[in-house]
């Protein structure tokens, strides 16, 4: 059983940001997904903290963190996380992002390459248009009222909500339990507003709106690990394969019989794959001249 997480709070731009921090050593920053919280990492924090300082925050407007001041874009989330690291005395980190957190992790790598040591994408958004129809429906006008009603009910009828989630492809395992818990949290008006603002920045009725594929070449000198569940019902696993092909030198791990949350559904395998990657790679060092050369090559080719 995982130990109880020790929660802390830092003030970032005058707003509280809740996080859990364990261990000592090189920094691992764990970024949760849509409607999630730092609890999404509960199963893996203790083993990862044996050799690392592991920091798992609640994103602004999520969990125990205050609002994002109205800006829930990928860029704003990435900036908040960079500022949290600085406030905690850390200059660089290996950034691990799950689902929406993967999109934030890629944005972090793009905005703050000097602060990035490695990039780990787990069932990541931002790598293709396909996404579960339920998330597309949540982007529709009027979804707020429907979510408010059903999320409130979900607080008291978790089994019913779980059956409903099973109907869209989530199996009765850790992914259902965690998604149900996240959905029930949207009964809170502030959390619901943050969720919808975040969602509508990255998902529309036609699918994902943000696609980082045209900038993946910038990660050529960054150690990259991509992890995915083969049975992911939220974001299809072929996104992982396409990203792996677009980033020569990246590592790809597909977990058989696992859905959208491999860190909860297969924590031992997840930790093993991540620790091997950390042991076998060296932290990236930002080289502005190499970055400039990559940015100039497409223009010259055109």
Describe the structure.
The structure is a single chain. With 302 residues, the chain is an alpha/beta fold. It has a single domain (7-130, 210-301), classed as Rossmann fold (3-Layer(aba) Sandwich), CATH 3.40.50. 42% of the residues lie in helices and 17% in strands. Strands 1-2-4-3-5-6-9-10 form an eight-stranded mixed sheet, sandwiched between helices. A two-stranded antiparallel ribbon has the order 7-8. Strand 3 (27-31), helix 1 (42-48) and strand 4 form a beta-alpha-beta unit. It starts with 6 loop residues before the first strand and ends with a helix. Mean pLDDT is 88; it is low at 155-170.
Care to give the gist of this entry?
This is Alpha/beta fold hydrolase. It comes from Svornostia abyssi. With 302 residues, this protein is an alpha/beta fold.
């Amino acid at each position: 059983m995982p130990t109880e997480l020790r929660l802390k709070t830092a003030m970032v731009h005058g707003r509280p940001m809740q996080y859990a921090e364990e261990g000592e050593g090189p920094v691992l920053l764990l970024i949760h997904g849509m409607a999630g919280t730092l609890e999404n990492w509960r199963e893996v924090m203790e083993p990862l903290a044996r050799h690392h300082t592991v920091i798992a925050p609640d994103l602004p407007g999520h969990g125990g963190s205050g609002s994002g001041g109205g800006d829930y874009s990928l860029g704003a989330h990435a900036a908040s996380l960079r500022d949290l690291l600085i406030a905690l005395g850390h200059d660089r980190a290996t950034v691990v992002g799950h689902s929406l957190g993967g999109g934030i992790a890629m944005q972090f790598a793009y905005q703050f390459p000097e602060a990035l040591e490695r990039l780990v994408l787990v069932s990541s958004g931002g790598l293709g248009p396909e996404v579960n129809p339920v998330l597309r429906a949540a982007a529709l006008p009027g979804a707020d009222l429907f979510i408010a009603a059903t999320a409130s009910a979900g607080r008291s009828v978790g089994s019913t909500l779980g059956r409903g989630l099973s109907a869209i492809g989530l199996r009765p395992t850790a992914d259902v339990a965690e998604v149900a818990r996240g959905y029930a949290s949207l009964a809170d008006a502030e959390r619901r507003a943050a969720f919808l603002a975040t969602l509508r920045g990255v998902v529309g009725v036609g699918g994902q709106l943000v696609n980082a594929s045209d900038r993946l070449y910038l990660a050529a000198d960054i150690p990259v690990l991509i992890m995915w569940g083969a049975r992911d019902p939220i974001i299809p696993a072929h996104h992982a394969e396409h990203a792996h092909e677009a980033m020569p030198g990246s590592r790809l791990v597909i977990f058989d019989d696992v859905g959208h949350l491999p860190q909860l559904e297969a924590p031992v395998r997840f930790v093993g794959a991540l620790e091997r990657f950390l042991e076998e790679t060296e932290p990236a060092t930002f080289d502005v001249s190499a970055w400039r050369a990559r940015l100039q090559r497409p223009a010259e080719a055109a």
